[in-house]
Amino acid sequence: MSGDSGLNFDPGLCFIGGKWVEPVSGETLALENPSDGSIICRIARGGAEDIGKAIGAARAALAGEWGAKSAVERGRILTRIGQAVLSHADELAQMEAKDVGKPLKQAKADALALARYLEFYGGACDKIHGETIPYLDGYTVYTLREPHGVTGHIVPWNYPMQIIGRSVGAALAMGNAAVLKPAEEACLTALAFAEIADRGGLPAGALNVVPGLGEEAGAALTSHPDVNHLSFTGSVGVGTLVQAAAADNIVPVTLELGGKSPQIVFDDADLGAALPFVVNAGIQNAGQTCSASSRILMQSGVHDRLLAMMAEKYEALEVGPALSDLNVGPLISARQKQIVSGFLERIEGNAKIVARGKVVADAPEGGHYVVPALIGGVEAGHVLAQDEIFGPVQVVIRFETEEEALAIANGTDYGLVAGIWTKDGARQMRLAKALKSGQVFINNYGAGGGVELPFGGVGKSGHGREKGFEALYGFSVLKTVAAYHG
Ligand code: NAD
After folding, report:
1. Which residues are paired to 139 by β-bridges?
2. Predicted confidence band at 1 (pLDDT cuts at 50, 70, 90)?
3. What is the 22 CA–ligand 1 centroid distance (Å)?
4. Which residues line ligand 1 (CB under 6 A)?
5. Which of 14, 125, 187, 290 is catalytic?
6. Is the pLDDT of residue 3 over 50?
């Protein structure tokens, strides 16, 4: 890949031990542009042997130059890489937009978020420390925070840069050496990141990237006995396999899985303030966002008004190629389009599509476009209100009382993010406590991303936390030292 500012990695290679190498199989996979169905390039089909080599390189880095770095030195390296990401932000955004199909502005925001993660974790490296613990007479007891060792990172296609930033960034900050398996559907920015990190002075083997299929390279990484920690972001189905593999080797695992996140809008809410949040949180990245707000719960007093306001927004939504930078891009694949279309065929009973956007006339035939759909009158227990659709589809559910809203909001298998819109302070506090959710937002949704804000789920949304300082505790092991000196 060559760009104006000079990234020139070969996407057909793996990055192992600081070198660009062919996958052992010599095989490659086609990488599709979701905006038009064309093939962007071919990527390495890494497999078990490549993963084994990457883990070996990571282990060697821990025993060598990378393992010898102090927290301050690691911080300087990460900060420098963050600066380099910033200077490549436009090039990375173009790459991500083409690869994932997300509108350019959203891809640029992801590149800036990656830089911000590196800046945050670069600054945090030397602020994490152990404690001294008062104990029996004659003892001095203290704790040390140490790296796990080799960390495995499996990342999905929807937000490669952001997820690499929060997971690999935090792991490196704590002195681990990482093996990253990006998604086969979108992995260019993972490779670009390896090149940027290498140029920025990250020692060989501290970061290794092996593209390939989930059931090959991914499964090899999760089951390898020499990996000390796993971080997985993706579907519940694969998360279950990853947790089982982690159990076999008794290693800790962080699972960042799906969601069916609600925003609850009460009669006293500021509808004008809520409107952009309730819509954008459903259609951003064409709804292919783990924390998408795919259920909008409206109290009956504002239901009709807010639904009409949302419908107006939906009718103005334009869908088209990523580089045209419209409101919504294509879905990642023909398969994803089929899944989302399948859900739209299941509208029944009182549920009906209230408004849709439109695909622009010049959108290429081969792109995987789905027209955004706002569905009203949905029953809380219906499949459309229970399952993660992962497309530009939001369902609206009417409620009468706070108790009913809470029961509906908590009434799915998931618990990733929730939003509350009300001016009633006591209600805000009650619901923030009672919602089954890893994050709760009051009179906003998402707080602009916030790399500082711990993130993760409960229930089928997963466990463990990434982002913020919390990730640094997760990517380290606490050792207790008790010295008897009389
Ligand atoms: P997926 O689980 O199919 O794939 C995710 C990653 O897992 C890919 O890199 C894939 O190659 C790998 N993989 C697949 N099979 C594997 C196996 N047997 N062993 C090891 N690795 C394997 O998920 P997807 O469909 O690509 O992504 C969408 C899902 O990810 C949605 O459910 C979404 O909610 C979730 N997601 C969650 C978050 C979060 O932070 N909670 C963020 C983004 C996406």
Report:
1. 484
2. low
3. 25
4. 154-159, 181, 183-184, 214-215, 218-219, 222, 233-235, 238, 241-242, 256-259, 290, 388, 390, 416
5. 290
6. no
Question: How far, in Å, is the centroid of ligand 1 from the Cα of 47?
Answer: 18
Q: How many helices (H) and strands (E) in the chain?
A: 15, 22
Instruction: Dump the DSSP string for 180-212.
Output: EE-BTTB-HHHHHHHHHHHHTTPPTTSEEE---
Residue 456 counted as domain residue: no
**Which of 159, 235, 241, 335 most suits a substitution to test ligand 1, by most atoms within 8 Å of the C-beta?**
235
Q: Which domain holds residue 219?
A: 14-257+463-481
Residues 384 and 348: beta-carbon distance below 8 Å: no
Closest CA relative to residue 79, chosen from 32, 129, 36, 123: 123
1 lies in some domain = no
Known catalytic membership, residue 41 = no
Same domain, 476 and 442: no
Report the C-alpha gap between 285 and 70 in whole angstroms: 38
d(CA 10, CA 24): 16
Separation CA 377–CA 355 (nearest Å): 13
| Nearest-5° Cα angle at 46, 8 to 287 | 75
Shared domain for 388 and 476, answered yes or no, is no
pLDDT at 6: 81
Hey, whose CA ends up nearest to atom 43 of ligand 1?
290
Pairing relationship of beta strands 150-154 and 229-233 according to DSSP bridges: parallel
Average pLDDT, the chain: 97
- Measured from the Cα of 184, ligand 1's closest atom is 11
User: What tokens were used for 143?
Assistant: 């704790």
Same domain for 278 and 403:
yes
Task: Report the nearest atom of ligand 1 relative to the CA of 154.
Answer: 9
**452 tagged catalytic:** no
* Probe residue for ligand 1, chosen from 110, 158, 466 as the CB with the greatest number of ligand atoms within 8 Å: 158
Tokens 């891009």 belong to residue = 329
Tell me the pLDDT tens digit for each residue of 333-363. Answer: 999 999 999 999 999 999 999 999 999 999 9
